[in-house]
Design brief:
Length: 82
Amino acid sequence: MTTLVLIALAAITARLIFIYTHPVGPCRRCRGKGTNPLSTKKRSGYCRRCHGARVTQRTGSKALHRMVRGTSNAVKDTRKKR
Ligand SMILES: [Zn+2]
């Protein structure tokens, strides 16, 4: 049981480090193409998820960067109290 908890903690830590160092990843909807699935050679439209940027922000990366920089609301609240 303890081993499972340790493995889970290691996986979460590894994921957080990965998200911190790679805040954006290829768009999952268009798979990095930047166009929507109905696009052909003659007509093309931007992907609705990434708007043609081909990359999307990873879940939790904004919150993680805010926490590290110390600009999240939770950190601000604790600083005000002191
Ligand atoms: Zn996309």
